[in-house]
Each structure stands twice: as structure tokens, then as C-alpha cells.
């Protein structure tokens, strides 16, 4: 967990104009900077970067955030990775749990990581240089329809048929200081059975006589390799082993190269091999990525969902392809959402994506993608195939197969629709499916289709409260204008206040020193009311309001919020007084409310400090 105090310090030190300017050409436009949005296609710039708020906002697609959010959105990095990259750029060390290590040990870890990264970079350059002098490798790539430009774009290389090829770059493998990082990076194999005359383990290149595919992380650093044979040989693909830099279950080949095309096309295409990714990019589908010789994992899905709201998995139509698709489905289920689309494309058994495009054309493949099977249909197909739905046993078996899949899905509209379809298919009701599959949130009720319990308090702020939230986010110092009575009424859910407003007032009270809008927004984004604050933040970014008019508007809005519950109570008691059912205490309360409402209408609400002056 990264402390919020560090995030605020970090965002005080970085300049978002510099961060965004590395990726987007910005021009000064009044108080802000303008440019073409990197997150959607546009011809006129609607993307603004505010140096005063330290925030970016696109008025075309609505993308917005701090410097941290920009790196996450642009590069697909996780929150911690984006924080680390920014911290490194300004010479800060992220205070995480691992930083509780002694300084010497922490410095050793950092040096080790740098050594591995340097080794991978130098090896990449070596393999690319070797490709230029390897006619058989060049001929193989040309035979696969690849151009020099696409090979350069993906950094393709060639590992020569040499047991000590990398010695020309790094030096003798007999030197432990040289060989150690290369073994740890997976570039060398160290044999414990075969040793040299002096007893040292025999060390030799892992990759020999193979086309080399560099695997990059979301920052563009090479963290591993995939090597492909050009003729007969096993394995066809040889991957880097698990290293401190590289984990097959968390990385995707081509994601760094495809990130812009994914946004332009609105979806990512997940295929099975490195060559498919490169060949599809050559043929006009630059939004393809591949898993690294392993099944798709939930971490893979999470990375893809950071890049786009639509994922299409492409598999062979044979039994092996169906099994791989089933594993991908299971990896996707925890991450499905009503605003996300996941589909499955099954090509004819004789084709992979590369061969299909070359034989049938890009338009035909685009139609295949468009008509790919939705996740819901694939799930229902899996649980019902090979079942005799005319018999009770077959229907019960389908429900049994569906149970773990439905349980893996978050509650929402999509799961609801699948439950209804499964109920129709198995001649049951949705409530019975939910009960059978254990989807109800309360064991005393039969699923979410039972009568819901009434909510005790209102969660969402009203329009007036939303405006108060916007003004407080813009000028947190306004919270100091609220006296005790105002806070008691505003923040009490039984009267007018929402929980989001109450939390925001407390957060404003806790600010010390100069306010950084970006840092404050990041803090609020980590709270349970992040959606409310995100909506308010968008409104704040769309207007430029000076502090003085904001103060007047804040005072007026608070006055209305304070008056509304009193007026509601007055009207309720007035009915009792008119009907003659009010006791003396109720009458006294009604008279006080009448005077108080009248006073507030005449004077308006003012902070206690102003009334005393």
C-alpha cells in the first residue's frame, strides 16, 4: 500500500505538462496546453492539460486524470507501476513494504534489476544486428510475408547457431560476474552436469539458430524473448524462463507495440502465437497480442481491460482450441462487467489468423471478428453441450456445470441475463437458478430476484449536493466556512447530507499546506465514493471559476441545503397543527421552525464567523 502522503508529495514534484508532453505534442492555449487526444481519433484538438490543476481532460472522449492516471491509461501500467515510474523520474523512492529492507539490501536489489535490464537491452541489439547478416533468417521472414519495416517495428532478431554467441557482447562466460546476470536473465543455461577443466559449470546460449522476438513490458523495456525455429525442430517456440523481470502468466506479447492500434480500433485481438501478432500487424490488424506459450490468466485479462473495453479471443476450431478458449473464459469471468465486451472467434481448423487473412482477405477476417461469439453464448454453449436437455438429468447437469462459472462472475446485468437464459433452457426460474448456484447475497432469501430490502439511507447526492461537492473539490478551503450547526445538518443522512459529501468535508479538513488538485483527486479516487467524485471532477475541469464567485455560490448552495430539511419538517408539522392533532411540544417546535425558516429566507445563510463580525 502506497501512502497517500507520498502520492501528494510526488504529484507536487512532477509537472503533468512534462509527463504528457513526452507522448503528446502540446501547444499553449491560454492558461492550458492543448493537443490531439491520444485516447481516440480526432482532427481538432480537444485534449487539454492544466498546469494549475495538474490534470488532463479530453472534451471529446471524457478521458481525464493526473500524471499517474495518464501513465496508466496511455501505457496500460498498474497504479503501483505508474507511481514507481514517476517517482524514479524525480529521484524518489516509493515507500512500500519492501522498502523496509535495510538500505544496503535495497540498493543491492536495485543494482541487480538494472543489471538484468541492461543485459536484455544489449542482447536485443546483438540479435537485431545478427539478423542483418543472416540471409536464411531474412528469407524465412520474407517467406512469411513480413517486410523489413514490420521486423524493425517489433525489434525482430536472429540468434546465431553458436553455443557462445553472446560472448562477443558480454565477454567470457567463465567470469562469474559476467555470466551471473546472463544466467539470471535466462539468456544462458548453466549446466551442473558438464563442467570445464577447472570445475566451473559449462555455460552456453539458451537461444541458438532461432528468429528472436523481444518481449516488452508496458514501459517498452525488453524483459524476455521468444525464439522460433525456422525449419523442423522442437520446441517450435522457446521462451525465456521465469526470471525477476519476466513472468509468462502476467505478460502479453505485442501489447506495447499494439497499444495505439487497440485504442484506434476499439478492441484487442488475442491470438496464440508471436508470428500471428507480427503477421497480422503487417496485414492491417496491428491491435493483436498473444499469450506467451501459456493459458490466458486473470492477470492477462486485467491488463487487456486497462487498454480497452472490448476483447476478442481467436482460437482454432479444433478440440485443443476449444479447451484453450474454455480456460480463457474462466480467466475472464472475474473481470466481466456490463460495460465490457468479451467475444470468442473460432476459425476453421485448417486456418490460423495469418493464413485466413492471406487466403480470404482482410474484409473477411474483419467480418469474422465482428461476428465472434459473445461470452454469454459461449458460456451457455459450454454448460449445455453434450447434455440431453429433454431429460431432468441433462438439465440438472447443465446447472451443475454452470454453478462455478456463474459464481466466478460479479453480480450485474450480464450475469442476470445469463441466469435468465439458463433458466429458460433448463425449464426453471431465475430465482431457482440463483438458489441452486448460491448466487443470493442473503441465505434467508432466494437470490436477488426476491424482494429487496429497503435502503435505510440515501447514497447518491442530489444535484445541489453535487454542486457543493464540485466547489469543495475546486476550493477545499471552503469547508472551513461550515460551522458546527451547518455540519450537523449537512452531514446527517437523515436530513439532507450524503455520505460522499460528509467524507469530502472531512478530507478537506485534513488538508495541510497548499492544495494540489491532482493529488487531492487521486486521494478521493481511492475512496468508496470514487464514482461521485469522478463525476464532480469532470464538471470542475469543464469550467474555470474564480475563488470569490465560487465562495458566493457555495454559501448560497449551503443555505438552500440547510433550509430544505427545516422547510420539510415545518410543512409536516403544519398539517398536524391544522388538523388539531399536535401536542404542545409539537406546536412549540412548529412556531420555532416558522420563525427560523422566515429568518433564513430574509438573511440567507452565512458562516458563523461572518455573523459574529
TrEMBL record:
ZnF endpoints (CHC2-type): 37-61
A GO BP entry: DNA replication, synthesis of primer
Reaction it catalyzes: ssDNA + n NTP = ssDNA/pppN(pN)n-1 hybrid + (n-1) diphosphate
Residues annotated as domain Toprim: 266-348
Requisite cofactors: Zn(2+)
InterPro entries to which the protein is assigned, alphabetical: DNA_helicase_N/primase_C, DNA_primase_core_N_sf, DNA_primase_DnaB-bd, DNA_primase_DnaG, DNA_primase_DnaG_DnaB-bd_dom, DNA_primase_Znf_CHC2, DnaG_bac, DNAG_N
Top EC class, one word: transferase
Documented EC number(s): 2.7.7.101
GO cellular component, one term: DNA-directed RNA polymerase complex
Matches recorded under PROSITE patterns: TOPRIM
Keyword annotations: DNA replication, DNA-binding, DNA-directed RNA polymerase, Magnesium, Metal-binding, Nucleotidyltransferase, Primosome, Transcription, Transferase, Zinc, Zinc-finger
Cofactor binding, per record: Binds 1 zinc ion per monomer.
Gene Ontology MF annotations: DNA binding; DNA-directed RNA polymerase activity; zinc ion binding
Function field: RNA polymerase that catalyzes the synthesis of short RNA molecules used as primers for DNA polymerase during DNA replication.
Subunit structure: Monomer. Interacts with DnaB.
Domain notes: Contains an N-terminal zinc-binding domain, a central core domain that contains the primase activity, and a C-terminal DnaB-binding domain.
Homology family: Belongs to the DnaG primase family.
HAMAP family membership: DNA_primase_DnaG
Name under which the protein is recorded: DNA primase
Organism: Cupriavidus metallidurans (strain ATCC 43123 / DSM 2839 / NBRC 102507 / CH34)
Amino acid at each position: 500500500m502506497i501512502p497517500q502522503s507520498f502520492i501528494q508529495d510526488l504529484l507536487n514534484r512532477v509537472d503533468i505538462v512534462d509527463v504528457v508532453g513526452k507522448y503528446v505534442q502540446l501547444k499553449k492555449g491560454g492558461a492550458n496546453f492543448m493537443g490531439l487526444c491520444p485516447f481516440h481519433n480526432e482532427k481538432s484538438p480537444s485534449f487539454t492539460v492544466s498546469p494549475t490543476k495538474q490534470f488532463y481532460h479530453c472534451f471529446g472522449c471524457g478521458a481525464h486524470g493526473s500524471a499517474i492516471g495518464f501513465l496508466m491509461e496511455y501505457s496500460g501500467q498498474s497504479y503501483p507501476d505508474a507511481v514507481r515510474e514517476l517517482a524514479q523520474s524525480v529521484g524518489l523512492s516509493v515507500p512500500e513494504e519492501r522498502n523496509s529492507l535495510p538500505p544496503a539490501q535495497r540498493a543491492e536489489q536495485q543494482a541487480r534489476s538494472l543489471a538484468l535490464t541492461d543485459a536484455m537491452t544489449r542482447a536485443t541489439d546483438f540479435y537485431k544486428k545478427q539478423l542483418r547478416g543472416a540471409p536464411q533468417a531474412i528469407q524465412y521472414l520474407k517467406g512469411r510475408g513480413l517486410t523489413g519495416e514490420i521486423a524493425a517495428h517489433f525489434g525482430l532478431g536472429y540468434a546465431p547457431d553458436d553455443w557462445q554467441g553472446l560472448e562477443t557482447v558480454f565477454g567470457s562466460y567463465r567470469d562469474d560476474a559476467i555470466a551471473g546476470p546472463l544466467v539470471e536473465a535466462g539468456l544462458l543455461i548453466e549446466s551442473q552436469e558438464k563442467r570445464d577443466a577447472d570445475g566451473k559449470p559449462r555455460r552456453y546460449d539458451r537461444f541458438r539458430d532461432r528468429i528472436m522476438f523481444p518481449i516488452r513490458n508496458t514501459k517498452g523495456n525488453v524483459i524476455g524473448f521468444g525464439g522460433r525455429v525456422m525449419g523442423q525442430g522442437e520446441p517450435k517456440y522457446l521462451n525465456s524462463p521465469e526470471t525477476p523481470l519476466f513472468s509468462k502468466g502476467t505478460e502479453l506479447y505485442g501489447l506495447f507495440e499494439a497499444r495505439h492500434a487497440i485504442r484506434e480500433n476499439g478492441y484487442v485481438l488475442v491470438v496464440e502465437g508471436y508470428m500471428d501478432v507480427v503477421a497480422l500487424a503487417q496485414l492491417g490488424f496491428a491491435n493483436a497480442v498473444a499469450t506467451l506459450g501459456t493459458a490466458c490468466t486473470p492477470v492477462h485479462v486485467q491488463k487487456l481491460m486497462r487498454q480497452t473495453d472490448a476483447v476478442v479471443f481467436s482460437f482454432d476450431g479444433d478440440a485443443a482450441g476449444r479447451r484453450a478458449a474454455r480456460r480463457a473464459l474462466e480467466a475472464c469471468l472475474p473481470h466481466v462487467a456490463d460495460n465490457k465486451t468479451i467475444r470468442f472467434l473460432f476459425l476453421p481448423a485448417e486456418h490460423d489468423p495469418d493464413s485466413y487473412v492471406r487466403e480470404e482477405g482482410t474484409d473477411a477476417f474483419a467480418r469474422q471478428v465482428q461476428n465472434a461469439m459473445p461470452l454469454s453464448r459461449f458460456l451457455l454453449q459450454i454448460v449445455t453441450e453434450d447434455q440431453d436437455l429433454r431429460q431432468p438429468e441433462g438439465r440438472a447437469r447443465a446447472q451443475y456445470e454452470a454453478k462455478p462459472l456463474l459464481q466466478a462472475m460479479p453480480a450485474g446485468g450480464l450475469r442476470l441475463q445469463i441466469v435468465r437464459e439458463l433458466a429458460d433452457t433448463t425449464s426453471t426460474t431465475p430465482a431457482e437458478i440463483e438458489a441452486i448456484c448460491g448466487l443470493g447475497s442473503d441465505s434467508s432469501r432466494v437470490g436477488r430476484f426476491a424482494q429487496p430490502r429497503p435502503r435505510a439511507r440515501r447514497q447518491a447526492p442530489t444535484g445541489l449536493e453535487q454542486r457543493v461537492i464540485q466547489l469543495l473539490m475546486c476550493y477545499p478551503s471552503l469547508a472551513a466556512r461550515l460551522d458546527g450547526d451547518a455540519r450537523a445538518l449537512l452531514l446527517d443522512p437523515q436530513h439532507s447530507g450524503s455520505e460522499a459529501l460528509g467524507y469530502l468535508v472531512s478530507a478537506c479538513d485534513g488538508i495541510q499546506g497548499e492544495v494540489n488538485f491532482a493529488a487531492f483527486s487521486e486521494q478521493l479516487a481511492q475512496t468508496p465514493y470514487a464514482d461521485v467524485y469522478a463525476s464532480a471532477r469532470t464538471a470542475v475541469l469543464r469550467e474555470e471559476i474564480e475563488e470569490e464567485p465560487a465562495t458566493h455560490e457555495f454559501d448560497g448552495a449551503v443555505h438552500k441545503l440547510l433550509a430544505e430539511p427545516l422547510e420539510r419538517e415545518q410543512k409536516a408539522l403544519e398539517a398536524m397543527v391544522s388538523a388539531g392533532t399536535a401536542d404542545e411540544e409539537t406546536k412549540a417546535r412548529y412556531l420555532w421552525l416558522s420563525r427560523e425558516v422566515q429568518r433564513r429566507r430574509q438573511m440567507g445563510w452565512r458562516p458563523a464567523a461572518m455573523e459574529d463580525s
